[in-house]
Amino acid sequence: MKLARSREAGDRERLLTGIIDLCEAGQASGEPTHPDIQALLNSIFMTLVVEAERDIRHRLSERLADADWAPSALINIMALDEIDIARPIIARSPVLQDHDLIRLLVQATLEHQIEIARRPRLPGAVVEAIISRDEPAVLTALASNETAEISPDAMGRLVGRSRQVVALRSPLARHPKLSSDLAEQLYLLVGRALRDALASRFHLDPAKMQAAVNDALRAAHRGENDDDVAPVEQDEDREEMERSLIEKLDSAGQLRPGYLLRVLREGRLQLFVMALARLGKFESAQIRRAIDSGRPELLALACSAVGIDRSVFPTILEHVRQLNGGRPGGGDEGVRRAASAFGPFTPDIAGMAFRQAVGQV
C-alpha cells in the first residue's frame, strides 16, 4: 500500500515487479486465478503501465514477453508502444493471437510491421495478411523468416513479387520452403552467386537454365517485358560492372557523399555499400555487417567518416531499412544512439571507431 501511494518512479517499478512476482508464483502453484482477481490485476496493470516512464515500460516488456498469464489488453497496448518496447512483445508473447497481429499490421508503424513479419513460427493467416498488404520492406522481412508458415501458394506470390522487389530475391533463394519450380523462376532474376547456389541445391540443368536466362535477356532488350518488372540481373557481370563504375567515379573525383543518397533513392543498395566502402576506405563486408546488424550507430559512424551531415543521416537510414528488410534495427532509440556518431570529432576518428566497432559484430 505504501508503494501504491508513492508517486516515485522507483516505487512504481517495485510495485509492478512485486505484482508480477505474485502472478508468476500463482502460475507456478497450478491454481487457476479467480476471474475477479484476474480482472483486478488487469486493472492494476493497465493503470500502472500507462502512467509508467519509458525505461520502466521497456524493462516490463522484457519481463512480460514470455508470460502466458499477462492481460491481453495490456499486451496489445505494449505491442503498440515505441518499437524498442514493443519488439520483445511482438516477437515472443504467447498472448498475441492471429487477429491481434493482423490488427497491428493495420494500426502500427512500418517498424512494428517488420517485427511482426520476423515473429518466429508466424501463423499462416498473418502471412496472408502481410502478403495482401504488399509492403516491400515487410515482405522482405517475411521472406527472411524461415519458420513462418508460408504455404506453397504464398511462396509463389513472393517469388512473383520479387520481379519488382529486388530485396526479396536473396532471402527467397535461401528459403527452405522454396520449391524446384519456383527456383527456376527465381534463377532468371538473380546474379551469379545465387544462381550457382540454386543450381546446386535443386540440381538444375545448367544448359537449360542458361538458355532461359538468354531468352529473358533478349526479351528485356526488345522491350517485351512488363514496364513494372525490374530488369533481370546481368548475372556474373553485374557486380564487376558496379565495382568498375565506383572506381571510375572515384578516379575522376566524382565519387562524393551526395552520391550515396542518390543511389539509395534509385533502390541500388549494393552500389551504396560499394560507394560507402570506397569513400571511407572500408571493406564492403564491413559495411554489409553494419547494415545487417541491430545497431544503426555503426552505419552512422561510417557515414560520419565520409562527411555525411547529421541532418541527412535519418533519410539514409530510412532508405537502407526499406531496401534491407528493416535492417539495421534499433528503432527510434537506435536513431537517437546514431546521432552520437556525429559528435565533435574528426572524420578520421569516426572511421577508426567504425572499424573497431564493426569488428565486434
Explain how this protein is built.
- The chain starts with a helix and ends with a helix.
- It folds into three domains: 1-96; 133-224, no CATH class; 237-358, no CATH class.
- The model is unreliable at 227-236 (pLDDT under 50).
- Helices cover 68% and strands 0% of the residues.
- The radius of gyration is 24 Å and the shape is flat.
- It has 23 helices and no strands.
- The longest helix has 21 residues, at 9-29.
- Helix 6 packs parallel to helix 8.
- With 361 residues, it is mainly alpha-helical.
- The protein has helices at 2-5, 9-29, 35-51, 54-64, 72-79, 83-92, 98-107, 110-118, 124-133, 136-143, 152-161, 169-173, 180-187, 192-202, 206-221, 235-251, 257-265, 269-280, 284-291, 296-305, 313-323, 331-339, 347-358.
Oligomeric description of these chains: single chain
Approximately how much helix is present in the residues? 55-70%
Low-confidence stretches: 227-236
Q: Strand share of the residues? A: under 5%
Q: Work out the count of structural domains.
A: 3
So how many helices? 23
- Give the tally of β-strands: 0
Strand and helix layout:
Blueprint lengths: L1 H4 L3 H21 L5 H17 L2 H11 L7 H8 L3 H10 L5 H10 L2 H9 L5 H10 L2 H8 L8 H10 L7 H5 L6 H8 L4 H11 L3 H16 L13 H17 L5 H9 L3 H12 L3 H8 L4 H10 L7 H11 L7 H9 L7 H12 L3
Helix pairs in contact: 2-4, 4-6, 6-8, 7-8, 7-9, 8-10, 13-14, 16-18, 17-18, 17-21, 18-19, 20-22, 20-23
